[in-house]
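Attaching the record inline, Q. Sequence:
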Amino acid sequence: MSLPKEPRQKMINIMYLVLTAILALNVSSEILNAFRTIEESFVRSNSGLESRTTKLINAFDEPSIIKQFGDKVAKWKPKAEEVKKLSEALYVQIESYKAEIKKESGQKTPGGEFKEDDLEAATRMFVADEKNEKVKAKGEELYNALIKYKQDLGKIDPEIEKLVPSLPVNVSVPKLQNKDNQAIVDRMTPPNQWSYVYFHMTPTIAGLAILSKFQNDIRNSETQLIEYCYSKVTSVELSTSLAAFANASSTMVMAGDELVITAGLGAYNKDTKPNITVDGASVQLNADGQGVYKTIASTPGDFTKKVNISYKDPSSGEQKTTSTEVKYKVGIPTGINVSADATRYFYAGGTAAPNPITISGAVGGAGAINITPVSGIASVVKTGAGTYNIICNTPGMAVFNVADGKSTQKLTIKVKALPDPQNAYVYGSFDPNVGIGGQVIANEFKLQTGLRAVLPNDFEFKGVTYKPKSFTMRFSGKGFNGTETVSCSSFAGASALLNKCVQGSTVQIMDIVMEDNVSGEHKLKQTIGFYLK
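Structure, as predicted:
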């Protein structure tokens, strides 16, 4: 088609072409919002992982750990610190890239506004210019830094080197859907391929999300390796050497209480047939090769029981004898004392969340204790001498009487509802670190089942479970005309919209309400965001 001869019409046509180009480059607000959500999700995850590694590093210095595993701490703590040093250096390097890309997108001061939809800033920074090979792009620099990071981790210790291949840090080059773009990528060197796929014509906010994703990979790798180092310190290796032991059931008993002394060899090897005596009296062995001695405490005071163990050393065949002493006190009861073992509160969790208590000081010993519920208690379960589990079903006040035949005490303890769970995550084939949001493969995301959540780390109620009561899923991006929303309690309720998801779709999950197995309802202030690739 020939161009119009009239200058005015030529100008109109040129303006139309420019407008078309601007519209083609415009990135929708829904896409930008999705990437913003993903970026924020990674930032929160990175903060949590950093807190976890800091606690692990500090755990090496706990007095009980140093006292029991001093030699192992000396070996593995420096290796854990080297993992943290390498990880922190690369994390900070990527953080500098994030600051630089914001400047490239118009940010004047730290924390100031910038063009989130800028399609050129990431390309200028990270993608190599084929016409000017002297200019080294940040993408190649980051690619090489990630490879070197894994290599340096492997040099810390041969055992750590075996774990490096399975770490989340991955520099493989994803395949592109566009054949023309893939042909361009195939002609490049690996660093440039990697940079082009991740950063070419990528909006600034998406580039920030990608950089946060690599920071998240680094934090996850750091946590995995430091946890491994810590496990090497606290693990106990079985030894073939034999050592005598003798333990009393308590170092403080009351008149009328039973005292139990358990003695034997550290390996509990009954094939060695040890001969055990307590104060010269022979002790019968049980099925595990342990000698169990029982006596009734009477007169108050300090006492010592001398334990002798004779055995045949299986490695040398020699007959050996070793001795030890068991010291204990006999006291006079001063009154019933009730101690809540886990917390000063009880929790309304039914049998899934039992509340342990210990009762001491009873006249006549632990066998004379009797607990009578008054209100707020479903049942009382005895778990040992003077130990019980109090089962509560509803919040309020637990009232019960404790008697020992001589006196009775009435106790009132507050009963609280189960705590809110930790952040919910998408599960199915995902693990929790993937399920909290980020970039995921579209087909894998569509196979997930729904949401799951667990108790905060400080709680040890293993029987407590949470299931989703309701949540809202918001779909946008490629495959959707604007934004589409559905409320459901599992992914099955959103199957129609999930089936529309393709590469380039975004999914947000919000308004999450979880329900524990005691019918307690928990509303979570959390939004989970995914970008499907």
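Residues 28 and 243 are 72 Å apart (CA to CA). Residues 18-25, 237-241 have pLDDT under 50 and may be disordered.

More tomorrow.
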